[in-house]
Write a structure and sequence with these properties.
Length: about 425
């Protein structure tokens, strides 16, 4: 029967015959062996005619793997004209299956029951379904999942308990910083990206969306780079799965939403007073992701306006921009926003999120601790940034274009902010 099931081509795993268990000790030994064999996904049982079920109790108590009770017999038909007790003892299973079903039910043992002739393809396919589930359960016991973000914030069915998850299903979930993932992303070459994009073209039907060919293929290339980076992280960390946060998928231009964080006046935009303000119209894409992203953009909105004067009007060139302050407390987030705003890679050190008047403290250190009389550029390079273990994030063309659109909306709505100052006292 085992050879026939394996040869059928319908069972996705190999079934191994373990002999007939004739006593409580033998049953328990078989079940313990199944528990201790990593390659064993589960146990399939079928019964002898008179199989006293009490001998299964200790074994069923010990079993930690999925169980299938296969109610079958070797012969498809019963030879009514010649049947005798010897034939029944060797070939029939009715009483044994009733006994086994009774003890499993009494012990509240979770199991799958398949009834039917073992050569029947439909019966074999039922076993195959259970086998796939059992293999999935076995695989879950060794899964390590990296969490780049919660699945969906505020959604109850996906806001789970990682400890309970591992207790119940076996998946081990570890948080993995997005900033560390970005280090992998930076090392992805253009040649590797080209190769994967060509594979996409062979595998999928490509339909250019409303953004146009140039922007569309840039998005595809970004996705390809992300896939390569994530696959490498998973391999290096011994993980086979990851989760992200749908809230991270906000639009690069915030969907038209505009925020102002003006608690006081802002001379760069010509306002002597300020009011915290959020502006949208009925057709803007008002999502939580876009709402939060617009507030992050607002934190560097005025900086963007000032730097546009330096970079675009005055043609100032910079070799390196280093960020420091509370904006960078959460790795990668503020860094990515500032990179999009300035259109330039942003570096941060490990202590970037500590805050404080870093710039003036740095100049003070230059005056006091500059025993070698370095110039300021040399002091920065050889003292401040020496041995820097920080990270750098470069903006994508899509993020730069998105921020540029957002800042246009920001400046266009400044009269709304001015009106709020005038009328909201």
């Amino acid at each position: 029967m085992v050879d026939g099931l394996n040869a059928s081509g319908n069972i996705p795993v190999k079934i191994v015959y373990k002999g007939t268990a004739n006593s409580s000790k033998e049953v328990e030994a078989v079940m313990q062996a199944a528990n201790n064999t990593p390659a064993c996904a589960g146990v399939i049982t079928w019964m002898h005619t008179f199989s006293p079920a009490k001998m299964w109790i200790k074994g069923l108590q010990a079993l930690e793997k999925p169980l299938l009770h296969f109610h079958t017999q070797y012969n498809e038909e019963i030879p009514w004209d010649t049947i005798d007790m010897d034939f029944m003892n060797l070939n029939q299973s009715a009483h044994g299956d009733i006994e086994f079903g009774h003890i499993c039910t009494r012990m509240r043992i979770a199991r799958k029951v398949v009834t039917g002739y073992w050569k029947n393809p439909d019966v074999q396919k039922k076993i195959a379904v259970w086998a796939r589930v059992a293999a999935g359960v076995a695989d879950a016991k060794s899964v390590r999942c990296l969490m780049f973000g919660m699945n969906m914030n505020n959604v109850a069915v996906t806001d789970g308990d990682r400890v309970e998850f591992e207790q119940r299903l076996g998946y081990h979930v570890d948080y993995y910083p997005v900033s560390s993932l970005m280090e992998y992303l930076k090392k992805v070459t253009e040649e590797e990206t080209d190769t994967l994009v060509e594979e996409y073209k062979k595998l999928y039907t490509i339909k250019i969306d409303e953004t146009g060919e140039k922007v569309y293929w840039e998005k595809v290339r970004n996705a390809a780079k992300a896939e390569i980076a994530i696959r490498r992280v998973l391999k290096d960390k011994g993980a086979t799965a990851f989760t992200t946060n749908f809230d991270d998928l906000g639009d690069a231009d915030c969907g038209g939403l505009v925020s102002y964080n003006y608690f006081s006046g802002e001379p760069v935009t010509g306002l002597s007073e300020g009011r915290p303000l959020f502006v949208r119209n009925a057709l803007d894409k008002f999502t939580l992701a876009n709402f939060m992203r617009s507030h992050l953009y607002a934190s560097v909105g005025v900086l963007k306006i000032g730097n546009d004067i330096l970079f675009k009007d005055e043609k100032v060139k910079v070799e390196r921009i280093t960020g420091h302050g509370g904006l960078f407390k959460t790795p990668g987030v503020g860094q990515k926003v500032l990179a999009a705003a300035l259109g330039s890679p942003i570096s941060v050190m490990e202590t970037a999120g500590e805050g404080g008047a870093w710039g003036i403290a740095l100049l003070a250190s230059y005056q006091i601790n500059n025993a070698s009389s370095f110039s300021l550029p040399d002091f920065l390079e050889k003292v401040v940034f020496a041995g820097n273990k920080g990270s750098e994030i470069a903006p994508t063309p899509e993020d730069i274009a998105g921020f540029d659109t957002w800042i246009q909306n920001y400046t266009a709505c400044l009269p709304v902010e001015a009106a709020a100052v005038q009328y909201k006292k």
